[in-house]
Amino acid sequence: MNNIVIYHNPACGTSRNALAMIRNSGNEPTIIYYLDTPPSRDELNKLIADMGISVRELLRKNVEPYEQLNLAEDRFTDQQLIDYMLQYPILMNRPVVVTPLGTRLCRPSEVVLDILPESQKRAFTKEDGEKVVDEAGRQIK
Length: 141
Known about the structure:
The structure is a single chain. This protein has 141 residues and is α+β, with helices and mostly antiparallel strands. Helix content is 30%, strand content 15%. The protein is built from five helices and six strands, in the order βαβααααββββ. The strands form two sheets. A four-stranded mixed beta sheet has the order 2-1-3-4. The chain has a two-stranded antiparallel sheet with strand order 5-6. The longest helix has 12 residues, at 13-24.
């Protein structure tokens, strides 16, 4: 039974690394390509609450809509920021991973290791060459 969900952008190396670590634990998650299928307002509010972060912490800053909408200004309510994330899904930072052990914004990608129910099955090296899991499946700190 699948009990892991990843809000994924395949163009993002961090998201690809998190997905690969989920798979390295022996799980095949439900993959939500959030740019094509954004979460609903209720889902987005729940994800933010479950992560225990502010709406602004989920907001991606280095994308065009952020600048165009002047979102750096502190005049927007949380619900206005959510409105913008719903209208422009690229504003949602990723990857967000949901497991029975918690919900996290997995930046850096190895944050996912904290919430995976099963340990890593083998060594894992991120796309940039950084080793994060040793041959025994233990996280390298």
